[in-house]
Design a protein that fits this description.
The protein has 154 residues and is mostly beta strands. It contains one helix and 15 strands; from the N terminus they run E-E-E-E-E-E-E-H-E-E-E-E-E-E-E-E. The termini are far apart. The longest helix has 14 residues. The protein is elongated, with a radius of gyration of 18 Å. It has two domains: 63 residues, no CATH class; 70 residues, OB fold (Dihydrolipoamide Acetyltransferase, E2P), CATH 2.40.50. A hairpin with a 2-residue loop joins strand 5 and strand 6.
Length: 154
């Protein structure tokens, strides 16, 4: 078992075989992906477990989870499969830009609930499962911390 796990868009992924990250200027986040004679420049921004990698002009959100974070994420996904109310929490700190739902709204799994801005990027928080919004605990313009309660779904 590795000491960390990489996720892109919440989905687990494995590093591409044969490619290595080589830092050109770690302090500035400038690096290259190298494989044989190929070299692709990348910019890496972020800290802790949430990162943004710019590759070929495309910004990609990447999470690198420690073993502890991975176990907590797995426990949260098991919790979502059980019946009963689900509390949707902030996975990163930031500013609530928009709230797309209200109490009483029926939402489908994956529906956008709100938009949060962190590190100059806007991220959508989506419904982990289908259900009815029974509580909204945030408003546009509010700053939230990681783990803050945002919604309750029934």
């Amino acid at each position: 078992m590795t000491d960390y796990e990489v996720r892109i868009g919440g989905e687990r992924c494995n590093p591409a075989a044969g490619w290595t990250l080589v830092w050109d200027d770690r302090a500035q986040g400038i690096a290259r992906l190298v494989s044989g004679t190929a070299s692709v420049p990348v910019v890496v921004e972020g800290n802790s477990s949430d990162w943004v990698v710019t590759l070929n002009g495309r910004r990609i959100g990447v999470s690198v989870l420690t073993r502890r974070e991975r176990l907590l994420a797995d426990a949260a996904s098991v919790e979502r499969t059980h019946a009963g109310p689900t509390i949707v929490k902030a996975t990163l700190p930031g500013l609530i830009v928009t709230v797309a739902v209200e109490v009483g709204d029926e939402v489908a799994e994956g529906a956008t609930l709100l938009t949060i801005e962190a590190m100059k990027m806007q991220n959508e928080v989506r419904a982990p499962r289908a259900g009815k919004v029974i509580e909204v605990t945030v408003a546009a313009g509010q700053v939230v911390a990681t783990g803050a309660s945002l919604f309750r779904l029934e």
